[in-house]
Amino acid sequence: MxxxxxxxxxxxxxxxxxxxxxxxAARAAEVxxxxxxxxxxxxxxAAQSGNARTATPAAAVxxxxxxxxxxxxxxxxxxxxxxxxQAVDALVVAMNGLQDGxxxxxxxxxxxxxxxxxxxxxxxxxxxxxxxxxxIVSAGTAEDRIxxxxxxxxxxxxxxxxxxxxxxxxxxx
Length: 173
Hints:
The chain has a domain at 1-16 and 67-152. 60% of the residues lie in helices and 2% in strands. It is built from 5 helices and 2 strands, in the order αβαβααα.
């Protein structure tokens, strides 16, 4: 296969990992590990030195904790995250089995646009709540990032390898 055929698939995988994998990893890191009194498996000298394997009784392990947003800002961001995950999941299901072509590329572009929309919406929520609590600097930073996403500045032109000679008045003699 040539590289241009694989590129859309690479973009799809990277977009999926970025949209789904990173937020899930961040959410998993926020959830506290289950606490429970662990008892040593054996009561020998290894248990006294702290090197014993420990077993946690099933009754001592609480049910898996899920992250529950506490503030209105966290709830709004969590709702947006859930909505975006559902949209991404629907797009991924629609992309399954499609051959490389205009339909697949259209869905990939929609996936990218979903990510951009998510970023803009989350920044708007953050700016709104930052402004409400009086944090003008954070609100301004979020609004600047929104502006940069929606209105990207064109890249500077790349200098040519060979400079174009300009007419010099001293050579005109």
